[in-house]
Amino acid sequence: MNIREKIEYDEKNILIPYAAFSSNTKGRKKIEEKDSIRTVFMLDRDRIIHSKSFRRLKHKTQVYIKTWGDHYRTRLTHTLEVAQIAKTIGRGIGLNIDLIEAIALGHDIGHVAFAHNGEEVLDKLNPKGFKHNENSIRVLSKIEKQGVGLNLTKEVLDGILHHSGFSRKEKKSFTLEGQVVRYSDKIAYVNHDIDDSIRADLLRKEEIPREFLQTLGQTHGKRIGTLVKDCIYTTLNNIEKDKIEVGLSYKIERSLVELRKYMFDNIYNGEILKKERYKAKFVLEQVYNYFLKNPQNMPRFYLQIVEEEGLCVGVTDYISGMSDDYCLYLFNELYVPKIVMY
């Protein structure tokens, strides 16, 4: 028995019957020889964390555009917070932590520069539309490694694809691990965005409806603790009743949903950041339109995509991979006059 086989054996003795077992994976698009040390989900996690698109997350906006303070979240730190919350919930339920970590680390790979503002721009300009969760799958399967892709397992790709949204009508991941990441994403960003908004003096704790704080907690840590514990115990209770799904209790979920709505109304889509959102969209739209008219100036890899799948697809792939810094650099190079000394 090699190390991988021992880990797979241990999973069967530790995890609950409804967990995703590495030895029972639905597999990859391309069959590979098994690793002697790492399970399939450990391999996926490592491939994601060593990818170029993962590293670019450190210079992609979470909420606040071009914030120079060291303590504001970026898309990368958000991803790490989601992974940590999800692993705690998964451990409490008895799920596969390696699968959870792989899904969490890859869930926002497809996000555009300037947060959801960038996503809105590409969704408008691309005739086929644009959604960051679908783009995450494209980046990991098609764009990474110059078109080879990372060849991830179906469980990881499914969890990433279905991490977005918070409606009960939306299709859920077929693994409980993927469902955990979906909840953890909301638990993370609602709470850390409150933290960042208060730090930026754009929100005061006293302005948050009192009922949400009374239910979830008065501090950042207490709110996350409340949500994590409730998710663990509610899910275990669901499973006991043969309702095999991850969830929150009614009162706690209602408070999270309403708190999330409050943040969308007052911060994400509110008047406070309207001016910065407009500037970000303007920059991204100008860069997109430039390459739409001058595709020959894109890297050769994206020109190949243009030849195979069309101009808009190639330009969208190129733009969606840019960090905030690189997009601003290109905008300055393309449109801002240089000072010439005579």
Automatic annotation (TrEMBL):
SMART domains, sorted: HDc
InterPro entries in the cross-refs: Diverse_Catalytic_Enzymes, HD/PDEase_dom, HD_domain, PHydrolase_assoc_dom
Gene3D superfamilies, alphabetized: Hypothetical protein af1432 (1.10.3210.10)
Keywords of the record: Hydrolase
Chain ranges of the HD domain: 75-190
Name this protein carries in UniProt: Deoxyguanosinetriphosphate triphosphohydrolase
Organism of origin: Clostridium aestuarii
